[in-house]
Design a protein that fits this description.
15 helices; disordered C terminus; globular; mainly alpha
Length: 424
């Protein structure tokens, strides 16, 4: 039954621009898969405490927070492929320089890892918003949903393979080879991006909205006509698309729940579910659910964000409920709730990306993409912080998160679909 639709959708690789981009991105994602776990192990080995890992993570996330606005601004103002090339050069320098230090006679120190993480984070902050804006230019609008599904699938595969690859490489060839493989994967992606500059001709361009103002005021879509390309220039666009603002608020709480579960899950597994083995089961359910969610969306026709906002709310609320009832439910049921939550987050995240990539004016797309990256990236550490600070009050925290999701899903669903396309 699915053979014909899958063959039709596989035709996306006949788009030479997308096929070139996807090939490089796939290799880069595979090279990146082992890096987070390998970095964590290396930071702990070098520092001998969790403090070293914390310092490395802060170096990575702090620079991403600082530069995510700049990434969106640059990607909207300049050629997105060239911005991505510059970002990959930064990441090659970050990993390559650290690899040289690891194999040199110099002792590896925590500050080496922190500096590498900061430069790597800067490259990522520049790369991601540009990629969000580039994807709709590489495929026809009818295939955008399929393209986002494939990119999400790559992330899920990397998430599943990452810990295994890191464990094998760290125990056999060592940390330096993890870095060299990452450098090689970025080099392949860099080559594909350079080739893309020769092929890159956007397959669709949204016509500029009418310059005729209403009631003597400038149209919202022309807010940066005076050359204002600062991050705050995204705010008038968000005001024009209230569904985007409420969607971002909803995704912030969803991201918060991800960070919360990452901290509360191991604690609950040890205290209520029998030990660390239970957390391994829950973590596996998260990874498997995310992969199934991406695969499910790939085999379906696009669904509206109105329905997706309700579905993702339901999935996460059920996860919070399962955590609250942890003493009454078997581990298998809680694992199923975790799998359902990650499935809905992955599937509805693809729908969300496709929706705003289709509806937002192209020249603002990367800027709003940087808002999307920033909000989601901020939600996870906030959730982790809440999970650590309020460990004695988990039931209350789970209830508050569930209530916030329900309250935000109402306007998110009601407003979805009410705004016409920018070129309408």
């Amino acid at each position: 039954m699915l053979t014909a639709p899958l063959k039709d959708r596989a035709a996306i690789f006949r788009e030479r621009r997308f096929a070139t981009f996807f090939a490089g991105h796939a290799v880069s994602s595979l090279g990146d898969a082992a890096v987070p776990v390998a970095f964590a192990l290396a930071a702990y080995q070098v520092s001998g405490s969790a403090g070293g890992l914390t310092a490395v993570l802060l170096s990575l996330w702090a620079i991403r927070f600082l530069l995510v606005a700049t990434g969106g601004r640059l990607a909207d103002r300049y050629d997105r492929v060239k911005v991505m090339i510059g970002a990959d050069v930064l990441r090659i320098l970050a990993q390559g320089a650290l690899a040289v230090v690891v194999v040199s006679p110099l002792p590896l120190q925590t500050w080496h890892l922190c500096l590498s993480a900061a430069v790597y984070g800067a490259g990522t902050a520049l790369y991601n918003p540009a990629q969000i804006g580039l994807t709709p230019e590489l495929v026809p609008e009818g295939k955008l949903h399929w393209a986002n599904s494939l990119l999400s699938l790559l992330a899920d595969v990397g998430f599943l393979l990452g810990p295994v690859l890191a464990g094998v490489l760290m125990s056999t060839v060592g940390f330096s080879w993890v870095l060299w493989l990452d450098v090689a994967s970025f080099a392949v992606n860099l080559g594909c991006l350079i080739r893309l500059t020769r092929l890159h001709t956007p397959v669709r361009r949204r016509p500029e909205p009418s310059a005729e103002p209403e009631h003597g005021t400038a149209p919202a879509d022309r807010v940066d006509e005076d050359g204002d390309t600062r991050f705050r220039a995204a705010l008038p666009v968000m005001a024009r698309y209230p569904w985007f603002s409420f969607g971002m608020a909803l995704w912030f709480v969803v991201s918060l729940s991800i960070g919360l579960a990452a901290v509360a899950g191991p604690v609950i597994a040890v205290e209520s579910l029998g030990g660390t083995g239970a957390w391994s089961v829950l973590a596996t359910c998260l990874a498997a659910g995310s992969l199934v969610g991406s695969l499910a969306v790939m085999t379906m026709n696009p669904h509206p964000w109105k329905a997706a906002s309700v579905v993702v709310t339901l999935g996460v609320v059920l996860q919070m409920a399962a955590l609250t009832l942890r003493d009454e439910l078997p581990t298998a049921v809680i694992g199923a709730a975790f799998a359902l939550a990650s499935l809905t987050i992955a599937a509805c995240g693809i729908i969300w990306d496709t929706t705003y990539q289709s509806e937002v004016p192209e020249r603002f797309l990367s800027r709003l993409g940087s808002v999307d990256n920033f909000v989601n990236a901020a939600g996870v550490p906030v959730g982790m912080l809440i999970g650590g600070v309020f460990a004695a009050h988990y039931d209350t925290v789970f209830a508050v998160v569930a209530v916030l999701l329900v309250l935000l899903s109402v306007p998110a669903a009601r407003l979805a679909g009410q705004t016409k396309k920018a070129n309408a």
